[in-house]
Recover the amino acids of this structure.
């Protein structure tokens, strides 16, 4: 891992890109690392393209601007790739993780992606199966942890459970569904051969 790792999340309003960047940042902080977690503010509305960002480091983070050259890009909605250049600023050796039922090689051909390490996970199906609706943010977190190892998986699960219990104490099915969706995506993320 470089001294600082930058992550850019792409999603649509209502898919939880802002929420998951903040939750991931808090878990990273709880693991003893330095971090930033923030959304891009603009005319957000349900379904509109949105971005959120994370910076993770072992040392204080002194940069205070958007992430323009991420090490990792996480795409919550693959339909964005038809209109948004989700790879902008991503180095040829960067990593892209896409919510898609397609195998990475098939997605690469379909989207005409060149370079970069490509991973896919069907976060939509996972979230519908476990949460009852298309909310791909928590499954994509599981995939991010598996692919990057930015934080210990067991720590992430414990931290997320604690945060979800505070917010959804009266809804144990929401807590369990989110935790299981992280675990399932962690297990099901597919690397390109």
């Amino acid at each position: 891992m470089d001294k600082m790792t930058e992550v850019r999340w792409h999603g649509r309003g209502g898919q939880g890109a802002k929420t998951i960047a903040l939750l991931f940042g808090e878990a990273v902080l709880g693991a003893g690392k330095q971090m930033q977690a923030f959304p891009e503010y603009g005319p957000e509305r349900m379904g509109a393209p949105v971005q959120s960002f994370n910076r993770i480091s072992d040392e204080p983070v002194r940069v205070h601007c958007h992430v323009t050259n991420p090490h990792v890009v996480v795409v919550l909605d693959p339909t964005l790739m038809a209109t948004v250049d989700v790879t902008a600023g991503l180095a040829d050796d960067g990593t892209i993780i896409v919510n898609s039922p397609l195998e990475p090689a098939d997605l690469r051909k379909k989207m005409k992606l060149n370079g970069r390490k490509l991973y896919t996970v069907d976060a939509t199906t996972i979230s519908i199966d476990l949460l009852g609706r298309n909310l791909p943010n928590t499954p994509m977190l599981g995939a991010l942890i598996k692919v990057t190892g930015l934080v210990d998986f067991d720590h992430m699960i414990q931290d997320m459970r604690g945060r979800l219990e505070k917010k959804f104490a009266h809804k144990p099915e929401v807590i369990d569904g989110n935790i299981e969706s992280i675990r399932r995506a962690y297990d099901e993320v597919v690397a390109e051969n």
Summary: Helices lie at 17-30, 104-111, 123-131, 137-148, 153-167, 172-188. The domain at 4-191 is CATH 3.40.920.10 (Pyruvate-ferredoxin Oxidoreductase; domain 3). The first strand starts at residue 4 and ends at 12.
